[in-house]
Amino acid sequence: MYFVGIDWADLHHDVAVLDEKGQELKYFTVPHKREGLEQLKQKLLSLDPEPENFACLVETKNGLLVQFLLEAGFPVYPLNPKVVDYRRKPSGAKSDPIDARLLANIGRSDLSQLKRLKPDTELISELKMLTRDQDGLIQEATRLTNKLIACLKEYYPAALEFFSKPTLPVALEFFKLYPTPDLVREATVPEIAAFLKAHKHPRPNQTAVSIWQKAHEPQLQASAPVVRAKCRLLLALVGQLELVKKQIAAYDEEITRLFQLHSDSRIFASLPGAAGRLAPRLLAEWGDDRERYENAAVVQALAGTSPVLFQSGKYRFARQRKSCVKPFRRAMHLFAFQSIKQVCWAREYYDLKRSQGKTHHEALRALANIWVRIIFAMWRSRTCYDEATFISARARHLNRAA
């Protein structure tokens, strides 16, 4: 068995190869190009023509390097960078060659405790990338929304009361036509109503009167330079928001299409509160490999829903698990929040945790932890959610506990 530590980077990769006794057989650097990765492959196969006899240790499980190694048949063992940092602490030394040798040594000593990377199916892999990228776009839209609100507060605060949300499509179009307080005050009620009708507002006449009244109420006036500068910023933010929202909608279409192609989609679509974006996101993070998780506790750790124990002497408490798959944790957190709006027992459990002094997010994590166990049972048995089944199982559990 050969242990290959690869310290990857954007431009080149440092590679150290150790045998089972810890002797360094090769050390070399290859550029991050197709020919460089082919050199890596050939140098390894010169030691042994069978790729299965190598264990490749690298601080990532994504990217072109990992994809190349998997396609070439090399076993890949991804390592958490924090593990490598911890091993490096005694000396504090850090360099690319040192890190490559350290990775190889970790593989040599701890391989039995490491998990070999098994890639997702193409459908799950694409769905996971799309849902994560879309979540990034949604967070970008939130950031732009906050900037737009802050911009309006500086020179045009009345505009924040014109619509229920300043980021509605009709609101963004309104800001483009009336980007300053003076322009909206010059407009008549019929003109505003005509605009709202053209943009299919459900109550154009009533809303037009409301906007006109709010625009003519006494308010603080920003100076002319502030109005000119912030008006330009407003239009820039509106343009960015419209573009991001359009892309988010396009992602919705493709994600829904892929989600419906998967046989497990019915399982996640049956979850109360998971309609829309959450069901595809949960499927993508969960995956479809039934051999990946030994039990629900493994999933709870990966999703960051189960707490970790901190103990030192007589000091002992449970705290949030920080080492987890962050997109998985976010998906479960959002789902738990949606479930308390639709599921009676979920609301009761959330309220119980709040009454015990837990914060909103702590209560949601505790609820998400229960949902992981439920979804795991559904996922393993390929069955849809049935609240009666859960209530019955909970009653049996409480009877045994009593």
TrEMBL record:
Residues 4-157 form the Transposase IS110-like N-terminal domain. InterPro entries: Transp_IS110-like_N (IPR002525), Transpos_IS110 (IPR047650), Transposase_20 (IPR003346). Pfam families: DEDD_Tnp_IS110, Transposase_20. It comes from the Bacteria. Residues 266-350 form the Transposase IS116/IS110/IS902 C-terminal domain. GO terms for molecular function: DNA binding; transposase activity. GO terms for biological process: DNA transposition. PANTHER family: PUTATIVE TRANSPOSASE FOR IS117-RELATED (PTHR33055:SF3), TRANSPOSASE FOR INSERTION SEQUENCE ELEMENT IS1111A (PTHR33055). This is Transposase. It comes from Neomoorella thermoacetica (Clostridium thermoaceticum).
